[in-house]
Amino acid sequence: MTADTSIHSRALLVNLSISTWTARKYDRAVTSKVNAEHNASSDAGRYNKMLLPGDAKAYKELISLASSIRVAHYGHTLAWSDEGWRLLPTANYNTYTDWMRKQRSAFDDALDTFVNMYPILRNAAQIKLNGLFKAEDYPSTQDVRKRFGIDVQYSPVPASGDIRVELATDQISIIERSITDRVESATRLAMNDAWNRLHDCVAHIAERLSDPEAIFRDSLINNARAVCASLRNLNVTNDPDLESMRVRVERELASFSPETLRESKGARQTTANKAMEIYDQMRGLYGAV
């Protein structure tokens, strides 16, 4: 079975696009005035106005939610290309779509709250900006809603056998070879992403626990548990070495609670030693990490 056929049957591609309104506006007149007052060149600086007051809670919560959705999207998927497409294993499809459905609902609720508050925030901004306020800088309430949105697109992983064009046989072969090479390269990138996630949490555990005086947060262990849980579905090539390392990290590094590791010097040292052993073994198995 070729790599592209294997990956084609085990995963699909997903592209997440989240649009937001920056609530900033470049003021050309103020920029020119400031640069002139300081005898600076016309491109020495730019003045960007904050169009909403600093305590615009509804706006901040909406932007924060958009950011958290992007971050979680990366956690559910693997790196694939520079065009925004990421690899979504079919084993993780239901989990991802259920999660995305909830995120869309939360985003819509947050957007409704912000849009309802928008006229009030705009009036507050007029007081804050004073002479810098320009009504034309602000979209209408209807238009500002359109500035926000979540769009998710899915696509099959390209397969060389999908080519259906009227070209000479040798030209089709070149195209199919190019597709196969691209998919194989992207698959390596995806698996490198998976290995690096596991590697990074192991390296971090080894670093923090090896120093008996180092303070660490609960997230040190909780993140390792989360990575191990996600890699159950993200191992799209069924790499046995990755699964073996995942199980070992879960069993040997994430078994103690953070509280136990803080209170027991023995448990902390044992876990630190195991983390270094796993770290060294991972480097031997997968040189890219």
Task: Give keywords.
6 strands, globular, alpha+beta, about 290 residues, 4-stranded antiparallel sheet, 2 domains, 10 helices
How would you portray this structure in words?
The protein is α+β, with helices and mostly antiparallel strands and about 290 residues long. It has two domains: about 150 residues, no CATH class; about 120 residues. The chain contains ten helices and six strands, in the order αββαβαββααβααααα. The strands form two sheets. A four-stranded antiparallel sheet has the order 4-5-1-6. Helix 6 runs parallel beside helix 8. The protein is globular and about 65 Å long.
Mean pLDDT, to the nearest integer, reads 88
Shape: globular
Question: Numbering strands along the chain, what is their spatial order in the largest sheet?
Answer: 4-5-1-6
User: Tally the helices: what do you get?
Assistant: 10
**Distance between termini?**
27 Å
**Number of DSSP-assigned strands:** 6
Largest sheet: 4 strands, antiparallel
Structural class: alpha+beta
- Residues in helix, %: 55-70%
SSE succession: HEEHEHEEHHEHHHHH
Name the beta content range.
Answer: 5-15%
Parts with pLDDT < 50 across at least 5 consecutive residues: 1-5, 162-167
Query: Which value, in Å, is the CA radius of gyration?
Result: 25 Å
Tally of separate domains: 2
